[in-house]
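Hi P.,

Sorry for the delay on this. The queue was packed all week, but I finally got your sequence through. Input first:
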Amino acid sequence: MTVKHSYRRVNETAAPESMTMDRVAEIDELVVAQTTQMCLRNGCCRPSINWVLLDSSNYELNLQNPFELPNVGGWIHEEATFFQRCLCHAPGCRETKFVHHSGTPPEALGSEDYHCCRIQSTPTSSFLATDELQSNIVAIHQKSNTCPTNCCCCPNFLPYLRTTDDEGRYLGETKYVCDGCIFVPKFLVLDKHQDPKFLLRPDTCWGGVCVRPKCGGRQGKCCRLPFLIRDPVTKIPLAATKTQDGEEVAQVTQLWSGLANEVCFKRHAYHIAFPTSTGDSMSNGSASLSSCSAEDKLVLIGSSILIDVAFFEQDDNDK
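Then the structure:
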Protein backbone atom coordinates (compact mmCIF):
# COMPACT_ATOMS: atom_id res chain seq x y z
CA MET A 1 0.00 0.00 0.00
CA THR A 2 1.28 3.47 -0.85
CA VAL A 3 -0.03 6.93 -0.11
CA LYS A 4 0.73 9.68 -2.56
CA HIS A 5 1.67 12.95 -0.89
CA SER A 6 1.45 16.15 -2.87
CA TYR A 7 3.95 18.18 -0.81
CA ARG A 8 2.77 21.13 -2.91
CA ARG A 9 -0.16 21.74 -0.59
CA VAL A 10 -0.42 25.39 0.39
CA ASN A 11 -2.70 27.65 2.36
CA GLU A 12 -6.01 28.42 0.70
CA THR A 13 -5.19 32.10 0.36
CA ALA A 14 -1.80 32.06 -1.38
CA ALA A 15 1.17 29.92 -2.34
CA PRO A 16 4.14 30.03 0.06
CA GLU A 17 6.97 32.41 -0.61
CA SER A 18 10.16 30.77 -1.78
CA MET A 19 12.40 30.00 1.20
CA THR A 20 15.38 32.07 0.23
CA MET A 21 18.06 33.05 2.75
CA ASP A 22 16.06 36.16 3.70
CA ARG A 23 12.95 34.11 4.44
CA VAL A 24 14.91 31.59 6.49
CA ALA A 25 15.89 34.46 8.81
CA GLU A 26 12.21 35.28 9.41
CA ILE A 27 11.02 31.78 10.39
CA ASP A 28 10.72 30.89 14.08
CA GLU A 29 9.91 27.19 13.64
CA LEU A 30 9.33 24.56 10.99
CA VAL A 31 9.01 20.82 10.39
CA VAL A 32 11.62 18.92 8.38
CA ALA A 33 9.90 15.78 7.02
CA GLN A 34 11.06 12.86 4.88
CA THR A 35 9.30 12.18 1.60
CA THR A 36 10.84 8.79 0.86
CA GLN A 37 9.03 5.62 1.84
CA MET A 38 11.46 3.25 3.60
CA CYS A 39 9.29 0.20 4.26
CA LEU A 40 10.83 -2.94 2.64
CA ARG A 41 13.52 -0.73 1.05
CA ASN A 42 16.62 -1.87 2.88
CA GLY A 43 20.00 -2.87 1.55
CA CYS A 44 20.43 -2.29 -2.18
CA CYS A 45 16.79 -1.24 -2.54
CA ARG A 46 17.26 1.80 -0.33
CA PRO A 47 16.88 5.03 -2.36
CA SER A 48 17.92 8.59 -1.64
CA ILE A 49 16.14 10.05 1.38
CA ASN A 50 14.59 13.38 0.41
CA TRP A 51 12.93 16.00 2.64
CA VAL A 52 10.38 18.82 2.60
CA LEU A 53 10.17 21.89 4.86
CA LEU A 54 6.69 22.37 6.32
CA ASP A 55 4.90 25.19 8.14
CA SER A 56 4.38 24.35 11.83
CA SER A 57 3.17 27.78 12.99
CA ASN A 58 -0.43 26.53 13.44
CA TYR A 59 0.42 22.95 14.33
CA GLU A 60 -0.37 21.09 17.56
CA LEU A 61 2.69 18.96 18.18
CA ASN A 62 2.04 15.21 18.24
CA LEU A 63 -1.72 15.73 17.86
CA GLN A 64 -1.74 16.25 14.10
CA ASN A 65 -0.06 14.42 11.24
CA PRO A 66 2.88 16.69 10.30
CA PHE A 67 2.76 15.42 6.71
CA GLU A 68 -0.53 17.27 6.25
CA LEU A 69 1.10 20.65 6.88
CA PRO A 70 1.58 23.16 4.04
CA ASN A 71 5.01 23.62 2.52
CA VAL A 72 6.95 26.76 3.43
CA GLY A 73 8.70 26.99 0.08
CA GLY A 74 11.63 24.66 0.52
CA TRP A 75 12.77 21.06 -0.03
CA ILE A 76 15.95 18.96 0.18
CA HIS A 77 17.25 16.17 -2.01
CA GLU A 78 19.91 13.63 -1.06
CA GLU A 79 22.88 12.56 -3.15
CA ALA A 80 24.66 9.32 -2.20
CA THR A 81 26.41 6.63 -4.21
CA PHE A 82 24.87 3.21 -4.72
CA PHE A 83 27.71 1.68 -2.68
CA GLN A 84 26.99 3.93 0.29
CA ARG A 85 23.25 3.31 0.23
CA CYS A 86 23.64 -0.43 -0.28
CA LEU A 87 26.49 -1.44 2.01
CA CYS A 88 27.27 1.27 4.56
CA HIS A 89 24.67 0.76 7.30
CA ALA A 90 26.59 1.40 10.51
CA PRO A 91 24.83 4.26 12.33
CA GLY A 92 25.91 7.63 11.00
CA CYS A 93 28.96 6.40 9.08
CA ARG A 94 28.03 6.77 5.41
CA GLU A 95 29.08 9.53 3.07
CA THR A 96 26.12 11.64 1.94
CA LYS A 97 25.06 15.06 0.67
CA PHE A 98 21.77 16.92 1.15
CA VAL A 99 21.02 19.84 -1.19
CA HIS A 100 18.60 22.43 0.17
CA HIS A 101 16.40 24.23 -2.40
CA SER A 102 14.02 27.16 -2.19
CA GLY A 103 10.69 26.99 -4.00
CA THR A 104 7.77 24.60 -4.25
CA PRO A 105 8.83 20.92 -4.11
CA PRO A 106 8.74 19.06 -7.45
CA GLU A 107 5.75 16.85 -8.10
CA ALA A 108 8.15 13.87 -8.29
CA LEU A 109 8.65 13.98 -4.53
CA GLY A 110 5.05 12.85 -4.12
CA SER A 111 5.14 10.09 -6.71
CA GLU A 112 8.50 8.33 -6.31
CA ASP A 113 7.08 5.81 -3.83
CA TYR A 114 5.01 4.10 -6.52
CA HIS A 115 8.22 2.38 -7.61
CA CYS A 116 9.22 0.92 -4.23
CA CYS A 117 10.93 -2.17 -5.70
CA ARG A 118 13.08 -0.24 -8.13
CA ILE A 119 16.82 -0.22 -7.40
CA GLN A 120 18.28 3.29 -7.64
CA SER A 121 21.70 3.15 -9.27
CA THR A 122 22.21 6.92 -9.55
CA PRO A 123 23.24 9.34 -6.74
CA THR A 124 19.82 11.04 -6.87
CA SER A 125 16.28 9.91 -7.49
CA SER A 126 15.72 9.22 -11.20
CA PHE A 127 12.32 10.88 -10.89
CA LEU A 128 13.86 14.32 -10.26
CA ALA A 129 14.80 16.26 -13.39
CA THR A 130 18.26 17.77 -13.83
CA ASP A 131 16.97 21.34 -13.71
CA GLU A 132 15.09 20.56 -10.48
CA LEU A 133 18.26 19.16 -8.89
CA GLN A 134 20.39 22.16 -9.90
CA SER A 135 18.07 25.15 -9.46
CA ASN A 136 17.35 27.47 -6.51
CA ILE A 137 20.02 26.00 -4.23
CA VAL A 138 20.19 27.71 -0.84
CA ALA A 139 22.58 25.46 1.07
CA ILE A 140 24.35 22.09 1.01
CA HIS A 141 24.67 19.77 4.04
CA GLN A 142 27.43 17.22 3.48
CA LYS A 143 29.58 14.60 5.23
CA SER A 144 32.26 12.11 4.26
CA ASN A 145 32.69 8.57 5.59
CA THR A 146 33.15 8.58 9.36
CA CYS A 147 33.19 6.21 12.29
CA PRO A 148 29.68 5.23 13.43
CA THR A 149 28.03 6.71 16.50
CA ASN A 150 28.56 3.47 18.43
CA CYS A 151 32.36 3.80 18.17
CA CYS A 152 34.19 6.44 20.20
CA CYS A 153 37.71 5.17 19.57
CA CYS A 154 38.45 7.89 16.95
CA PRO A 155 36.96 11.18 18.29
CA ASN A 156 38.19 13.13 15.26
CA PHE A 157 36.27 10.90 12.85
CA LEU A 158 32.77 10.91 14.35
CA PRO A 159 29.61 11.78 12.36
CA TYR A 160 29.14 15.41 11.33
CA LEU A 161 27.24 17.43 8.76
CA ARG A 162 28.90 20.51 7.26
CA THR A 163 26.71 23.29 5.86
CA THR A 164 27.77 25.60 3.04
CA ASP A 165 25.85 28.08 0.90
CA ASP A 166 25.19 27.72 -2.82
CA GLU A 167 28.64 29.15 -3.62
CA GLY A 168 30.48 26.86 -1.24
CA ARG A 169 31.00 29.35 1.59
CA TYR A 170 31.21 27.67 5.00
CA LEU A 171 28.16 28.43 7.19
CA GLY A 172 28.79 26.02 10.07
CA GLU A 173 28.49 22.36 10.96
CA THR A 174 27.01 19.90 13.43
CA LYS A 175 29.31 17.35 15.08
CA TYR A 176 28.39 14.28 17.12
CA VAL A 177 30.07 14.42 20.54
CA CYS A 178 31.30 11.26 22.25
CA ASP A 179 32.46 11.96 25.81
CA GLY A 180 32.42 10.22 29.17
CA CYS A 181 28.62 10.28 29.36
CA ILE A 182 27.86 8.00 26.42
CA PHE A 183 24.21 7.43 27.41
CA VAL A 184 23.30 11.06 26.72
CA PRO A 185 23.64 11.77 22.99
CA LYS A 186 24.79 15.26 22.11
CA PHE A 187 25.79 17.36 19.13
CA LEU A 188 27.98 20.45 19.00
CA VAL A 189 26.97 23.12 16.46
CA LEU A 190 29.68 25.42 15.09
CA ASP A 191 29.07 28.80 13.46
CA LYS A 192 30.59 30.21 10.27
CA HIS A 193 33.77 31.09 12.19
CA GLN A 194 34.04 27.47 13.43
CA ASP A 195 33.33 28.62 16.98
CA PRO A 196 30.91 26.66 19.23
CA LYS A 197 27.44 28.17 18.82
CA PHE A 198 24.98 25.62 20.25
CA LEU A 199 24.95 22.31 22.09
CA LEU A 200 22.08 19.90 21.29
CA ARG A 201 21.37 17.55 24.17
CA PRO A 202 18.22 16.01 25.70
CA ASP A 203 17.36 16.40 29.36
CA THR A 204 17.29 12.67 30.07
CA CYS A 205 19.28 9.56 29.41
CA TRP A 206 18.98 7.72 26.09
CA GLY A 207 17.50 4.66 27.79
CA GLY A 208 13.94 5.91 27.44
CA VAL A 209 13.47 7.14 31.03
CA CYS A 210 11.65 10.44 30.72
CA VAL A 211 11.81 13.07 33.44
CA ARG A 212 9.83 15.71 31.57
CA PRO A 213 6.38 15.82 33.24
CA LYS A 214 4.79 17.49 30.24
CA CYS A 215 5.46 14.46 28.10
CA GLY A 216 3.23 12.00 29.93
CA GLY A 217 4.26 9.28 27.49
CA ARG A 218 1.96 10.76 24.85
CA GLN A 219 2.21 8.91 21.57
CA GLY A 220 5.74 7.74 22.15
CA LYS A 221 7.21 11.12 22.92
CA CYS A 222 9.22 9.62 25.80
CA CYS A 223 11.15 7.64 23.20
CA ARG A 224 11.56 10.79 21.10
CA LEU A 225 13.51 12.97 23.47
CA PRO A 226 13.75 16.58 22.36
CA PHE A 227 17.30 17.72 21.73
CA LEU A 228 17.25 21.05 23.56
CA ILE A 229 19.33 23.77 21.92
CA ARG A 230 21.70 25.04 24.61
CA ASP A 231 24.43 27.53 25.23
CA PRO A 232 27.61 25.52 24.48
CA VAL A 233 29.39 26.82 27.60
CA THR A 234 26.73 26.99 30.32
CA LYS A 235 24.67 24.09 28.86
CA ILE A 236 21.53 26.12 29.68
CA PRO A 237 18.63 25.76 27.19
CA LEU A 238 18.03 28.80 25.01
CA ALA A 239 14.70 30.53 24.69
CA ALA A 240 12.50 30.18 21.61
CA THR A 241 9.49 32.06 20.34
CA LYS A 242 6.46 30.44 21.98
CA THR A 243 5.17 27.74 19.65
CA GLN A 244 1.63 26.52 19.08
CA ASP A 245 2.27 23.71 21.55
CA GLY A 246 3.35 26.16 24.24
CA GLU A 247 7.02 25.27 24.06
CA GLU A 248 9.37 28.14 24.89
CA VAL A 249 12.64 26.20 24.71
CA ALA A 250 14.59 25.98 21.46
CA GLN A 251 14.77 22.34 20.41
CA VAL A 252 14.87 19.68 17.70
CA THR A 253 12.22 17.01 18.34
CA GLN A 254 11.30 13.89 16.40
CA LEU A 255 7.52 13.90 15.89
CA TRP A 256 4.86 11.24 15.89
CA SER A 257 4.03 11.24 12.19
CA GLY A 258 0.89 9.11 12.17
CA LEU A 259 0.40 5.35 12.20
CA ALA A 260 0.85 4.89 8.44
CA ASN A 261 4.11 6.84 8.33
CA GLU A 262 5.46 5.31 11.54
CA VAL A 263 4.64 1.66 10.89
CA CYS A 264 4.09 1.25 7.16
CA PHE A 265 6.29 3.84 5.47
CA LYS A 266 8.88 4.66 8.18
CA ARG A 267 9.01 8.31 7.29
CA HIS A 268 10.41 10.62 9.97
CA ALA A 269 9.59 14.22 10.77
CA TYR A 270 11.39 16.69 13.05
CA HIS A 271 10.15 19.91 14.57
CA ILE A 272 12.72 22.69 14.97
CA ALA A 273 11.98 25.60 17.34
CA PHE A 274 14.80 28.05 16.62
CA PRO A 275 16.36 30.04 19.46
CA THR A 276 15.39 33.71 19.59
CA SER A 277 19.04 34.55 20.22
CA THR A 278 22.33 32.88 21.04
CA GLY A 279 22.72 34.43 24.49
CA ASP A 280 19.28 34.80 26.08
CA SER A 281 18.88 31.57 28.07
CA MET A 282 15.76 30.37 29.82
CA SER A 283 17.08 30.71 33.34
CA ASN A 284 19.38 33.69 33.67
CA GLY A 285 17.50 36.24 31.55
CA SER A 286 20.77 37.75 30.35
CA ALA A 287 20.88 40.22 27.50
CA SER A 288 21.09 38.71 24.06
CA LEU A 289 24.57 38.36 22.67
CA SER A 290 23.44 37.99 19.07
CA SER A 291 20.38 36.95 17.12
CA CYS A 292 19.94 33.52 15.58
CA SER A 293 20.90 34.31 12.00
CA ALA A 294 19.71 32.71 8.77
CA GLU A 295 23.06 30.90 8.59
CA ASP A 296 22.54 29.49 12.11
CA LYS A 297 19.05 28.27 11.18
CA LEU A 298 20.30 26.54 8.05
CA VAL A 299 22.92 24.74 10.13
CA LEU A 300 20.22 23.67 12.63
CA ILE A 301 18.15 22.27 9.76
CA GLY A 302 21.23 20.20 8.97
CA SER A 303 21.39 19.22 12.66
CA SER A 304 17.91 17.67 12.47
CA ILE A 305 18.98 15.61 9.43
CA LEU A 306 22.18 14.47 11.16
CA ILE A 307 20.16 13.28 14.18
CA ASP A 308 18.15 11.13 11.81
CA VAL A 309 21.22 9.81 9.96
CA ALA A 310 23.08 9.10 13.20
CA PHE A 311 20.30 7.29 15.07
CA PHE A 312 16.92 6.66 13.51
CA GLU A 313 17.87 5.84 9.92
CA GLN A 314 19.86 2.85 11.17
CA ASP A 315 16.97 1.73 13.38
CA ASP A 316 14.70 1.54 10.35
CA ASN A 317 17.27 -0.38 8.35
CA ASP A 318 17.41 -3.08 11.03
CA LYS A 319 13.63 -3.57 11.19
